[in-house]
Amino acid sequence: MAFRNIGAVFFGAVLALSGCAYIGDDLWPSLSGDDEVEDVEVVEIPVAPGETPAGQDGAPAYMPPPPATPPSPRALPPTLGSTDFSVGPATPGQPTGTFVGGKVVQLRNDLNNLQGALNAHNNELQTIRAQVTQHTQIYYGLVAAIQSRLQVGTTPGNPVLTQQWNESQVQIELLGNDIAHMNSLSNRVTSDTAMVGFLLESTTAAFGLSGAIEEDHRQLAILEDNVDRTIVVVERLLYELNGDIRRQTEYVARERNNLTTLALAVKKGEFFGSHISTRIAKAASTEGSTGGDVAFSPTDRRPLVVIRFDRKNVDYSQALFTAINRTLDRKPDAVFDLVAVSPSGGAPTQLSINAHSAQRSAEEVLQTLSDMGLPAERVKLSAMHSGDVQTNEVRIYLR
Fewest C-beta in 10 Å: which of 6, 40, 58, 226? Predict the structure, then answer.
């Protein structure tokens, strides 16, 4: 069963396999024909509210997990620096008529030119900060409105929420442009640090020139103090600007992931939670890489999720999201086996039809996991027949 997209504009991240109508048989290794799976407590998708799932006589009644709750309030965007880095002109002085006095005049003019550039950079920084604040406030309000509507319940693919999501995407792109402008400004300020360092060296060296009078050295000392103060301003500007860039970059990357999951929530009409890739990225920084590839054997593992495709439009997204998230809470480097299971009884033609249908259902689940933020390399596909099932299933195992 092909997973239906709602448009490339709506989803920013699409699994590479999603564009294929069929996944080749080489990606579907066949397991033994009659492998059994122990009846255990797993997340199961019911036939209908209050009914017992097919093929699971005596199984406990299905209790859907509580809906995911967004942060209250939503995690705030990072705070921007607020320092004004404007600098005044260098202390004026009178020409003395000596060679060293002429050198002082030249260095003072160079410093004034540099300070003028710094003031222009400061004005640009304040403008960028105002833009970032405006774009962030609009984005924050749009996402908060979408989440609030999802929390109280709404229709799948609500056009109002879809429009708000599209507007949120525009604002996050504008924030990305703001970061690019800050990076450009940082490069220019870095050049200023080289220039102000050169001025300090030149001013210090001028004290060693011959032919100077006491007034020349007095003005050189004042100029050296002016250069030192300018160095402090340049260094603080660069430090604060780079800090803003780092925090904003992390924020925008995180929100891009969250928008992908929010897109799925809008399509389904219910809120799922934070993007799974955000949790994985945090775990990877502390836990290291995932374990090696292990051959799948269904007989020695219990399924985390069993989805029975015994009717059309099986609503499994929330239960699937909750199960994967709970697993990642316990094992952040988890890798999963996604198995298409079809009944082993019947004529050869029916076996082939059932196997094909089960694989299409597995592709749908794989696409849903991708939209939720689970990387493709964390999921291994396979297929099997089983004499214990009466309808097609998709099972997810912890590798």
Answer: 58
Indicate the domain borders of the chain.
Answer: 16-68+289-398, 99-268
Q: Which fold has domain 16-68+289-398?
A: 60s Ribosomal Protein L30; Chain: A; (3.30.1330)
Euclidean distance between the first and the last CA atom of the chain, given in angstroms as a whole number: 25
Among candidate residues 284, 289, 283, 281, the one with its CA nearest the CA of residue 250? 281
Within a 13 Å sphere around the CA of 106, how many CA atoms are in the beta-carbon half? Answer: 11
Q: In a structure prediction context, what are the per-residue pLDDT tens digits for the chain, which is 399 residues long?
A: 333 333 333 333 333 333 333 334 444 554 443 333 333 334 554 433 333 333 344 333 333 444 444 443 356 788 898 899 998 899 999 999 999 999 999 999 999 999 999 999 999 999 999 999 999 999 999 998 998 888 888 888 899 999 999 999 999 999 999 999 999 999 999 999 899 999 999 999 999 999 889 999 999 999 999 999 999 999 999 999 999 999 999 999 888 888 887 888 888 787 665 555 555 554 444 444 444 444 455 556 788 889 988 888 787 887 888 888 888 878 888 889 999 999 988 788 788 888 888 888 888 888 888 777 788 788 888 888 888 888 899 999 888
